[in-house]
Design a protein that fits this description.
The chain has seven helices and 16 strands. The chain is of the alpha+beta class. It folds into two domains: 147 residues, D-amino Acid Aminotransferase, Chain A, domain 1, CATH 3.30.470.10; 160 residues, D-amino Acid Aminotransferase, Chain A, domain 2. The strands form two sheets. Strands 1, 2, 3, 4, 5, 6 and 7 form a seven-stranded antiparallel β-sheet that branches. A six-stranded mixed barrel has the order 8-9-10-11-14-15. Helix 2 packs across helix 3. It is globular, with a radius of gyration of 20 Å.
Length: 342
């Protein structure tokens, strides 16, 4: 098909992390017990779905988040998309859905970027956020896997996740609410994990905080996640992040920071992080596909406030941010093979 290569009427300088309807989307369906086949590209459109769909009634669904970026020399890069494919497959198995093969997943992602390429912001102005979804679209009344599933992908041009970009944010620890419990679906990017966090997050924002920090549901003292991002802190030049226990999402940005930090000569520990220890750290930041790396300026817990890096951006946090975004944006040689070109 002939694609519209005209530029959309968007002020790239004022782009935020919000929804914008683009041109094209990918869709495929699969019956229960069968395997996925390649889907089709179609114009962006609303879905027609049964009121009895498994995703609506029982939350049988998951999503992924990834980005395409335009380099200074005009190339288009993805970032470790095979890990999104693998994580979605693991999530499908946990939620009783047929996993989408890595080959089909990656092919679909590339098609969506190609056919929405005019929505990809110029270098330095933002990214094209790619949203794969897999969910039970077939009608089901009892609590059981849906008879049919849908895999779709759409894309949206986005700016920074937190207003102000790379500026320190203030967080509040939640002692009342928890994100996930052992044995649950906390390690899966399940749609049902996110709605319960909206009210605590809104309450924190109404008090002037950027986001909430969740503690574990058993001991109520170990740091789990920052809203929808992974947590890191740095003390005496050692980097710490909560270990994956099944209640924390295995973030791809998280994994990359661990590998990158070690390659830069830093000691990186994956372990349980007591909130009291985190409150004595020298630096802290959160990480994820949407935010990449956001420095934490302060954390409030039980009436006590800890300020990090004198209200600025910590030295190691800055080093990691520059090193990671240089790779993501194609400014340096990608020695890790993380950024396949479209």
């Amino acid at each position: 098909m002939m694609l519209d290569d005209s530029k959309p009427s968007i002020d790239w300088d004022s782009l935020t992390f919000s929804f914008t309807e683009t041109d094209r989307m990918y869709m495929s369906t699969c019956k229960k017990g069968e395997e996925w086949k390649s889907g089709v590209m179609q114009d962006y459109q609303e879905l027609r779905i049964s009121p009895a769909a498994g995703v609506i009634n029982y939350g049988q669904g998951l999503f992924e988040g990834m980005k395409a970026r335009r380099t200074e020399d005009g190339r288009v890069l993805l970032f470790r998309p095979e890990f999104n494919a693998r994580r979605s497959a693991e999530g499908c198995r946990r939620l009783g859905m047929p996993p989408v093969s890595e080959e089909i997943f990656l092919s679909a992602v590339k098609k969506v970027v190609e056919e929405n390429i005019r929505w990809l912001p110029p270098n330095g102005k933002g990214e094209l956020y790619i949203r794969p979804l897999i969910f039970g679209s077939g009608a089901v009344l009892g609590v059981s896997p849906a008879p049919e599933y849908t895999f779709l992908i759409y894309a949206v041009p986005v700016g920074p996740y937190f207003k102000g970009g790379m500026n320190p944010i203030s967080l509040k620890v939640s002692d009342e609410y928890h994100r996930a419990a052992p044995g649950g679906s906390g390690g899966v990017k399940a749609i049902g994990n996110y709605a319960p966090g909206m009210m605590p997050s809104q309450n924190a924002k109404s008090e002037g905080y950027a986001e909430i920090i969740y503690l574990d549901a058993v001991n109520h003292k170990y740091v789990e996640e920052v809203g929808a991002a992974n947590f890191f802190c740095i003390k005496d030049n050692v980097i710490y992040t909560p270990e994956l226990t099944g209640t924390i999402l295995p973030g791809i940005t998280r994994l990359s920071i661990i590998e990158l930090g070690r390659s830069m000569g830093y000691e990186v520990h994956e372990e349980k992080i007591d909130i009291d220890f985190a409150m004595t750290a020298d630096e802290a930041f959160c990480a994820g596909t949407a935010a990449v790396i956001s420095p934490i300026g302060s954390i409030e817990h039980g009436g006590k406030i800890t300020n990090y890096s004198n209200g600025g951006i910590g030295k190691i946090t800055q080093e990691l941010f520059v090193a990671l975004t240089d790779i993501m944006n194609g400014r340096v040689e990608d020695k890790f093979g993380w950024t396949p070109e479209l």
